[in-house]
Design brief:
It is a single chain. The chain is mainly β. About 0% of the residues lie in helices and about 50% in strands. The N and C termini lie far apart (about 110 Å).
Length: about 190
């Protein structure tokens, strides 16, 4: 005869380490194990990044040599190995790593499928850590508009914390070689 047994515990705090977890369940008669089984896995996910911000050094559409700066505070303590940052469709250039803080510097930066990925050696990063990543050498999209960036911290290939920045406006570009001429440069001359 089988019988379902439910035991609900309240006021517990989840682990601060994201991942997939199962539970070993054992019934006992005194100190002797009677039945045992492993539950299905449950995934403990991360939280929401605090104050995610994206800023750019030049908001002109199609501008080259632009620096994108990303800042945020982590929500979950985890061993991180990368941070991903979405960019507007059509963003190009040859990204290079600028100043990095809060996570290891000296990693690699790559642009693929409208996402910048900063990869580094796996490092434990505490919750509440302020992170800043500067990416240089970018070319803005040629389509003017208002764009946000989705920021995600990653442990191996598992997303940990995410956050959406406020919008940044990509505007019309600067005119090339603007010139203004007058027929006479004296202040009292009528033309």
């Amino acid at each position: 005869t089988s019988r379902a047994i439910s035991d609900c515990k309240r006021a517990l705090t989840n682990t601060s380490t994201t991942g997939s977890y199962s539970a070993q369940l054992t019934t006992k008669n005194g100190t002797t194990a009677v039945d045992s089984a492993v539950s299905a896995s449950i995934t403990i996910t991360g939280g929401t990044l605090t104050t995610p911000v994206w800023s750019i050094s030049n908001t002109g559409k199609g501008a080259t040599g632009v620096t994108y700066t990303y800042t945020f505070k982590t929500a979950t303590t985890a061993t991180l190995s990368s941070v991903t940052m979405t960019v507007p469709p059509g963003t190009g250039g040859t990204p290079a790593l600028g100043t990095v803080g809060g996570v290891p510097s000296g990693g690699t930066i790559a642009l693929a499928s409208n996402t910048l990925t900063y990869s580094f050696s796996g490092t434990s990063v505490a919750s509440g850590t302020s992170v800043s990543i500067h990416v240089t050498g970018l070319t803005n999209t040629s389509t003017a508009g208002s764009y946000t960036s989705q920021l995600t911290t990653v442990a191996s290939s598992t997303p940990i914390d995410t956050g959406l920045t406020s919008a940044v406006s990509i505007t019309g570009g600067a005119l090339s070689s603007p010139i203004w001429t007058v027929s006479a440069s004296t202040s009292t001359v009528t033309t």
